[in-house]
Amino acid sequence: MDIRPLHKDFGLEVLDCDLRRLDQDNRFAVLRELFEHHSLLLFRGQPLDDEEHLALGRRFGPLEDREADRPEAKMTFVSNETQAGVFTAGDWQLKQLQSNFLWHTDSTFLPVPALANLLQARVVPSAGGETEFLSSRAGWRDLDPKLREAIKDRFLWHSYAHSRGKIDEDLAKRELISKWPPQCWRAVITNPVTGEESLYIASHAYAIEGMEDEAGARLIEEVMAAISQPEGIYSHRWRPGDLLIWDERAILHRGRPWPYEEPRSLSSICVSLQDRDGLAEMRLPA
What we know:
Elements: E1 2-5, E2 12-15, H1 27-38, E3 40-43, H2 50-60, E4 76-79, E5 81-82, E6 85-86, H3 92-98, E7 114-123, E8 131-135, H4 136-142, H5 145-151, E9 155-158, H6 160-165, H7 169-173, H8 175-178, E10 183-186, E11 188-190, E12 197-199, E13 205-208, H9 213-227, E14 234-236, E15 243-247, E16 251-255, E17 265-272, H10 279-282
Parallel strand pairs: 2-3
Antiparallel strand pairs: 1-2, 3-15, 4-17, 5-6, 7-15, 7-17, 8-14, 8-16, 9-10, 9-13, 11-12
């Protein structure tokens, strides 16, 4: 497998790799090692069907299911398509998609957050609709020493309703959003394979354990602003068949707007963290 960098701080494009044939030459072990060290992997021209996509996700670990009574919900679609066409301005589903334009890490609001997202392009618009990425590992490495000292031993509270409320207060009140109680995770996590530290922060983060609410929210905003400088961004322009896999412990991402009269559809599978991935160390001590 040939590789080439996507950004100076993180990310690789893996060339000439058919993700349906990873049993050859121990290829998955190689990809998992690249995942641990480089955080973001791009594969072009992957004709995976739903079952092949799901099977690839299971290689990384247990698949996340936000609707336990619907096993088929392990794959979700980041899409504005409907049977009648596309979402229109004012639809709550379009506002939900637009809330993904905030820098975030998937599933920090769940009782078990995500290890990885495997996101595949199905339908792409004529313009826009990029997904942008930042390395929270590089962000932590380069963070101003005063901010590092202020946040390094802290625990952050995360809420799905908080991030959605930034877009629309009524969206935050929908049962799909509000049913998840806040979760608390360590602000700086360590990759157990590489020993490298990363910030664990997201648009869902709203408070810091042990800090006054306003001061905690202000520190979160300062850190997010510091690590999301333009030079740290890799912006991915989708082609049909592209598949991106990223480490949720070390990557922040956001979507970008597109002409909403055009369809855009990406299929997403999140893989849940396990203790071997550092989950236990992330929890607030009892």
